[in-house]
Amino acid sequence: MGKSNSKHLRRGLSLDQMPATVLYDEKSFVDFVTDVFAQEVELNDSMQTLFRGNCAASRLMSHCFRTFGSKYLKQLLEPHIPTPAIETATPASTTTGATTTTTITSTAANNDTAATTTTDIATNISYEIDSTKLEEDGDIDLNQKNLLKLTKQILDSILSSANDFPPQLNLMCICLRNVLCKKYPNSDTYLKAVGTVIFLRFINPAIVAPYESGIVDKQPPPKITRGLMLVSKILQNIANNVEFSKEEHMLPFNDFVRTQFEPMRKWVIQISSERTQINI
């Protein structure tokens, strides 16, 4: 089953055209994914070139992330991504004689308690830490603290979410870990590879583009978008188990990055280990 379907996938067959049992029957899913991943690992001599481009393994992985991971990502990330308040129109009715006039007024405009909501404040926070892009009155030290706080919030949610990790993706990570383990017996090597792939192809794309990924219903403002991009860079380095070295404005975060290597390693072990019972 696995090898037959993987041949079709390599020839360009859409995953949507695959028999449903391939993705929704546990044994078929494991056989299929293992075969596709094994071929990808066999064809690549370097860890750095794994799952790059539009290879069969990358397409399979993206399909699984999209099909089985969307709800998980929304629950994980939505609480941490401020978006502009959406004004809602409410009808205000006035009666003059037998005539009733309905006037549409903005809820936000009628709120006398505060001109600026908590969400408005959050969306105005700056995370810019690159001096070449800093606003004229910007404060790099303050922005570094803002960025570190946002990064910690998102990372804490990720590291505490292992039990909520979708069972299909758990199986996929187990297959990936087992395949990599055979070629790279060193545990640090294959665990790092699993973490790198999960953040590079699954979590970070949703962080960088939360509106396009369906995480939030409204496009975040530029300041938030910039902050999320920087958060993704920090998280990717943690997943890759490497410190910053080339980008000077990222160097102050190396102390934090180092402290998260081990928690990240434990999380990767959790999401790529067998559970007591998996129902897909």
TrEMBL record:
* Protein keywords: GTPase activation, Phosphoprotein
Say yes or no: keyword Mitochondrion present. Answer: no
SMART domains (UniProt xref)? RasGAP
InterPro entries to which the protein is assigned, alphabetical: Ras_GTPase (IPR039360), RasGAP_dom (IPR001936), Rho_GTPase_activation_prot (IPR008936)
Q: Where is the Ras-GAP domain?
A: 11-240
Q: Which SUPFAM superfamilies match?
A: GTPase activation domain, GAP
Q: Which GO terms describe its molecular function?
A: GTPase activator activity
Name of protein: Neurofibromin
